[in-house]
Amino acid sequence: MLAARSLVLHLLYFLYLIYLISSIGMIQVIREKHDTPENVARRLSLAGGVNRYGEPNYRVVWGWNRLGWIGGKFEDRDAAGNLLREVVELRWEPKYPQVNRWHVERWVPPEAYGSPATWYSQTIERAGGKSVAALGPYPDRGEYEHCFTLQGPRGEFLQLTPTIVAYVAHAIEWSRGQGSAKQRAGLYEREEREDRAYEQWAYDLMDDSVPAMHGLPFVTVK
User: What are the sequence ranges of the domains in the chain?
Assistant: First the structure.
């Protein structure tokens, strides 16, 4: 009888601990993470070349793995949605909303972001009586910006393959050399600008029914 009562008490104590952890918002979401395969990284480097630091101009990252600085006012809530606290700070958060997709990024040099003084003057925000850099520290070594999400026309998951990634990189480089500076800049804007239109263009390029590169020369990566 005593052993049974002791077991019940331990179970109740265990359930109470779970409740406490849940109430203070400490339950963590399991994030699916994937490293970029070495052969994919190598092919993408061959396709797009390297920057001044010897790093690839293009890279592919898994959404959950790609974190970036976000500064501002955050509300922390428990599992039931109750507000626990409000805090103004910098947080290392997923950069893209499509966390379970592969993303192709292009390196942008630091001078594209202006001087550090300009950067902070344009990104500093005030909240709760505090100042915070909304986009984090100045990217003094440049930054990788989004240029393509690897997914189907209806947003479905697509498996990462070296051929597709290298093909997209070549298409982007070719397009950079065409048209006006406005078109080139528009190609590398964040996905909220004209992402859907660009994805359709990229998928047209990869469609087997369309001649490779629309008749334009490209390098085959083996």
Answer: 2-215
